[in-house]
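Late entry, written up from scratch paper. The run itself happened at the end of the previous shift, but nothing got recorded in the book at the time, so transcribing now.
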Amino acid sequence: MTFFPDYTAKTKAEESLDLETLAERIQRTTAPSKDALPWLKFARFGRLPNPNGKSGSLRWSGNVARLSGVVADYDGEVITPEDAGERLDKAGIIAIVYTSPSHLLDGHGPRWRVGCPFMHEMTPDHHYRMVSRLNGLFDGKLAPESFVLAQSYYFGAVGDNPEHRAIVVDGTQYLDQAAGLDEIALGKPNGHSGGAHPSGNPEAPLGDISAALDLIPNDDLDWNEWNNIGMATWRASGGSQEGFAPFDGFSQKSKKYDPDETEFRWHHYFTSPPNSIGFGSLVYLARQVKPEWIPPSKRRRENTDERVITVESGKRHIAANQGIDALVAAEVPFYQRDNKIQRIALVKAKTASGEDMMVPGIVSVDTAILGRSLGGAARWQRFDARMKRYNRIDPPELVVRQIHSMVGEWPFPPLRGIIQCPTLRRDGSLLDAEGYDEATGLIFTGNAPMPPIPANPTRQEALQALTLLHNLLAEFPFI
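Output as recorded:
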């Protein structure tokens, strides 16, 4: 991550810290005023000062080289840091929640930031999508500046604020691994300026947009109202041709429908993209018709088909088998190696110069992590004979320990190791796809930037590669 000493950001320092160490630094950092506090960002920046001005600031979007995570801001003054940590914990997301300098000061309510590291570094174009995942998890309540690529944040306390704190959430997956959050992802909130997000990056699933437009009436809207809904739909769908279909259907509700004008207006939005209206506007209008309306993609979080495991006396073995099945169905990234359940996590290592850095490593899954994963993979319940109802429970410790000990019966794939650059399989084929490779038992994280490698190189490409290898070894003093 990158630290800036102050707002000007004319200098920077890059460090590799685990979340516990970062939390300690945030806890002990204080200053007499907010302006005197340092800044942080989960990213690496280049050395080029901002050319659009004389500030010399290194903190600008064009200077972001790689993302090691995202940091987002909440200033809604309703959700507490503890509630935020609990929400992240339930989703299994590895994160840190720390209070803003103005938290509970001068009449303010709860204010905090949330930082989520990635499993491995990503290119800057992934920023919007990753923040959208977080924003969906917090029901669209994150501040809009969270979506600004180079946005960095103050950290530390002003004076001796007794409410200042940093909470580490020891989840089971990194934000870039949590593809399931794409179903509830929400883009930049409506009603704030800051530049339109480029087309091709929708704020909401197409089904949610269509469902909202189905509810919104169009009996006799004036042109401005109709145009506002068009802009909101364009922004929500990323300006896609697929997004035009529901807007066209909405327009056909009116007797004034003009197909040529509707199509012209849609394409006109590309020339002046809307930046202060979007999916949030469609949700608001839909709820004017049906106050309890929830976008379909968010309803899936409360799916009535959720896997349920009922714990009964004398049937612990059945609950253990069902728990393993739930882990597999939920695609929890567990593996087996050396007769242990293993997972991939960032661990501290040393560079050749003695500096600390975080690298992907293989760590054993203890019963605490296993229990948490089981709780996230299914709903566990036990019948209460006195109340004559089923009560939700945590996965019983005895069941967790039994699964933990079932060596030889786990269905998790075998893990041989981790690689961070492409390699060849025994059959000569190229392993260059990120993730777990069944043929080799290796996990490729793709952390090291590599040029494209052709699957079927030409003779000329092979000779060029051979020349490169020869040049690398030409000056080596073989004996």
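The mean pLDDT is 87.
(Scratch paper discarded after transcription.)
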